[in-house]
Amino acid sequence: AQTVTQSQPEMSVQEAETVTLSCTYDTSESDYYLFWYKQPPSRQMILVIRQEAYKQQNATENRFSVNFQKAAKSFSLKISDSQLGDAAMYFCAYRSAGGSQGNLIFGKGTKLSVKP
Amino acid sequence: NAGVMQNPRHLVRRRGQEARLRCSPMKGHSHVYWYRQLPEEGLKFMVYLQKENIIDESGMPKERFSAEFPKEGPSILRIQQVVRGDSAAYFCASSLLRDRGYGANVLTFGAGSRLTVL
């Protein structure tokens, strides 16, 4: 069975600085998708960024980028120029390309604090 | 577009009572997913439904839990004879298309329903 591990329960960053959140996963599959979701205090789950495993190029979305290392099964999220609104829980998630579309497997999350 | 709407946002039940959680998907979305989030945990998949069909219920507990998505109206997650261990946040998500093995269709989540069992 696939698993997703986020080894940092909490992280802190100074406003305008850069922070990297770690995520590793375990799978025997070669084709899959990886996601980062943000959950602010409102509890709304918001998609931050996604990566297809067959793509070697790392995904980027404005200030958010990933470092996808398929061989190492690592999928870290980098947030540049951190803003106060980035403070939230961040969840890494995995989905098999061949499985049920909805069966996302989540890590336990990393709580990010942003200091002014 | 109102997004995925869940209600109630907060629900309190005593042990043995029934809990019903509702989810209206985004306009035009015909696929609904339910997830449960226990305290200090990530979300765990429960069930995936299309209109009038259960596609994947591999994450649903075998007893007391059921889900439906009728032709008309919202999707309902029903928990009978609730116990304290059912206390959690229950999230609904919806999507437009069923994945056909390529691409990664995006799930849009609601704000969740927090169930507290006394």
3D structure, described in words:
The complex is a heterodimer of chains A (116) and B (118). Chain A has 116 residues and is mainly beta. Chain A contains no helices and twelve strands. Chain A has strands spanning 3-5, 10-14, 19-21, 24-26, 32-39, 46-52, 60-61, 64-69, 74-79, 88-96, 105-106, 110-115. Chain A starts with a strand and ends with a strand. In chain B, β5 (43-50) and β6 (53-56) form a beta hairpin. In chain B, strands 2, 4, 5, 6, 9, 10 and 11 form a seven-stranded mixed sheet that branches. A four-stranded antiparallel sheet of chain B has the order 1-3-8-7, with no helix packed on it. Chain B is built from no helices and eleven strands. Chain B has 118 residues and is mainly β. Chain B has strands at 5-7, 10-13, 19-24, 31-37, 43-50, 53-56, 65-68, 75-79, 88-95, 108-109, 113-117. Chain A binds chain B through residues 4, 33, 35, 37, 42-47, 50, 52, 91, 93, 95, 97-98, 100-109, and chain B through 31, 33, 35, 40-45, 48, 55-56, 58-59, 89, 91, 93, 95, 98-99, 101-102, 104-112, 114.
Summarize the structure.
The complex is a heterodimer of chains A (116) and B (118). Chain A is mainly β and 116 residues long.
